[in-house]
């Protein structure tokens, strides 16, 4: 059964400072150690402030079908180079499996068909890209908290890492969120967009939707979900591909 909840608008003003820093993430200033230290401090303050004034279950705004964008741009990679991924795509992901492992009691390996038969949530939300564009689309998928509950998180788990099929310069893409966002009702693994199966350019077979954060956190081509205690052993330790290499903030709350 697909769940649809009408929601109140989330307070966004506290994220303004963080968004400004994100937009500067690739320039020369952002590469300096001093700037990155200030950026990290601002990020921590922004996240702490948001978590203090916004209820853990506060919802990002949802829209009506009439508000949906006529065109929803693709971003990042539109076709992973992996031969294994391309073989799965050619077979409509019939033999593909989503792995849920790490600090869990019951590791999972779920087919796309199985995932589509799990209870799903549909939501029409706005995607805000760090590049400066936005679009409104409808996403349908399984709540992440349902998968984590099925796997049984161990007490020491603190972060959820998403390992993806695409790569940049030979480095597989990865992202992460904490348990507050992982168990948020709007955090889903989407298998449909605008009432149609998710297209490859938009991240098939599964794309993370974490609606209270900027678009680069919405990992595409999700292959594996790993529960970890620390992000220190993930990439360069900052929790995501762009966070490690371009100075993007790990917490991209809006």
Describe this structure in words.
With 254 residues, this protein is α+β, with helices and mostly antiparallel strands. The chain has one domain (2-246): Sulfite Oxidase, Chain A, domain 2 (Alpha-Beta Complex). Helices cover 24% and strands 26% of the residues. The protein has seven helices and eleven strands. It has helices spanning 16-23, 33-53, 83-90, 112-116, 144-151, 179-182, 241-246, and strands at residues 2-3, 97-102, 108-111, 120-128, 134-143, 159-168, 171-178, 188-193, 196-197, 207-209, 222-228. Strands 1, 4, 5, 8, 9 and 10 form a six-stranded mixed beta sheet that branches. Strands 3-2-11-6-7 form a five-stranded mixed beta sheet. The protein is globular. Residues 4-42 have low confidence and may be disordered.
How are the SSEs placed, and which strands pair?
Blueprint: E1 2-3, H1 16-23, H2 33-53, H3 83-90, E2 97-102, E3 108-111, H4 112-116, E4 120-128, E5 134-143, H5 144-151, E6 159-168, E7 171-178, H6 179-182, E8 188-193, E9 196-197, E10 207-209, E11 222-228, H7 241-246
Parallel strand pairs: 1-4, 2-11
Antiparallel strand pairs: 2-3, 4-5, 5-8, 6-7, 6-11, 8-9, 8-10
Shape by Cα distribution:
globular
Count of discrete alpha- or pi-helical segments spanning 4 or more residues: 7
End-to-end CA span:
29 Å
Order of helices and strands: EHHHEEHEEHEEHEEEEH
Helix/strand/pairing class, anyone?
Answer: alpha+beta
Tell me the number of strands: 11
CATH class: Alpha Beta
CATH superfamily: Oxidoreductase, molybdopterin-binding domain
Q: What's the pLDDT, averaged over the residues?
A: 85
CATH topology: the name is: Sulfite Oxidase, Chain A, domain 2
CATH architecture: Alpha-Beta Complex
Largest sheet: 6 strands, mixed
Percent strand equals 25-35%
Low-pLDDT ranges: 4-42
Q: Helicity, in percent?
A: 10-25%
Give the count of structural domains. Answer: 1
For the CA atoms, what is the radius of gyration? 17 Å
